[in-house]
Amino acid sequence: MAIPRVHLPLVHLRETDSTSLLARREAQEGADLPRLYVADTQTGGVGRFGRAWSSPLGGLWLTLAWPLPAVGGALEGLGLRVGLACCDALDAAIAHAGAPRRTQLKWPNDVMLQGKKVGGALCEVIPIPGGMAALLGVGINANFPLADLPESLRGRAGTVLDLLGIGLDLAGLRHDLTARLIEALTVPRPPGATVALVRQRLSGVGQPATITAGGATTSGVLLGLSDDGRPRLGTDAGEWTAPAGAELLLG
Amino acid sequence: MISIETLKEIVRLMVDNELAEIDIRDAEETVTIKRGGQLAPQVVVAAPHHAPAPAPAATQGALAPAPATPAPPAVDLPAIESPMVGTFYSAADPDSPPFVSVGKAVGPDDVVCLIEAMKVFNEIKAERAGVIERVLVSSGQPVEFGQKLFLVRPA
Hints:
The complex is a heterodimer.
Chain A: E1 10-16, H1 19-28, E2 35-42, E3 60-68, H2 78-96, E4 104-106, E5 110-113, E6 116-128, E7 131-140, H3 160-164, H4 170-186, H5 191-200, E8 208-213, E9 216-225, E10 231-235, E11 238-241, E12 247-250
Parallel strand pairs in A: 1-2
Antiparallel strand pairs in A: 2-3, 3-7, 4-5, 5-6, 6-7, 8-9, 8-12, 9-10, 10-11
Helix pairs in contact in A: 2-4
Chain B: H1 4-17, E1 21-25, E2 30-35, E3 41-46, E4 79-81, E5 86-89, E6 105-106, E7 111-117, E8 120-125, E9 130-135, E10 142-143, E11 148-154
Antiparallel strand pairs in B: 1-2, 2-3, 4-11, 5-7, 5-10, 6-9, 7-8, 9-11
């Protein structure tokens, strides 16, 4: 990977409320960026729209805080690229542990392994003193048993340990994932190339799917992605392409 | 005389299309409707062209008196525009209050909304100082690049 060499301070905590919230607080208070925040456990991990993200010991919970010159086109496709970075890093870690499996990507950036969600990302672009910053928060359910997740999550979520019976090198995974996230932030890639890579590992194609967007819900069968990276559904009324801000539920 | 129902319909069309002023003329009268100030329409009923001009006080309609120094119409106010295609959210999450609402004073660095695109949540700054005059989109609504989100009355 042709990524720039950067000085990346690491803030590693045994426990925090949320690496993303911590990164946000410090960035808004003027902390030097970039900076990587890692926690062994989170007591208040957050996902989309502030939803709780369970973060027991044995997972990888991190947020990369990165300064941005401006918001807009330079970050086009970032959500998909972060998802690909998570999949590629986890594939490499699993292969290194001797149990090669290929993860899939549930649009736009959930990591799926054997049909279970084992990782996800939350990307935020926020104002900070003197500019903007990207906060890329990633959670990987790695080296802990499924029983450590709340019962309500066990149907859809999984852990690498539970699914494959292996433990991952968390430090190696963190290092590789961070490099891939930096690449997603800094190395331009044609949008079509990103979409092509996502199509190769898109989860749920041909399966029933529901998309929520703009307060409306549309159900059908997931057909794939449009050329600009949005999910396409086959519905009773014909083919329909979701808006970029939609939420996809499989099954 | 124009009916109240017709007047209401015209005002609704003006609001929907962000028209600042409209003239309606027939043989009997000329009606001018202007939007401005706090967005209350101003109705000016002019005399028939052949009649003597009425006193200035009689030209003011009942809906809203024209201010001595009219404020710029809302459509002429600067707008905060969407820098990207995505979904507009007025609050950080469903349980939080909106970042801003009509009448709220904002500074250039104040966050006014979120635009989400493929699970990237972009906090959008006002980029100018003023008072939020109008919120032009609903939370959860898809927005386009350059679409006006808010009108801001400069401080």
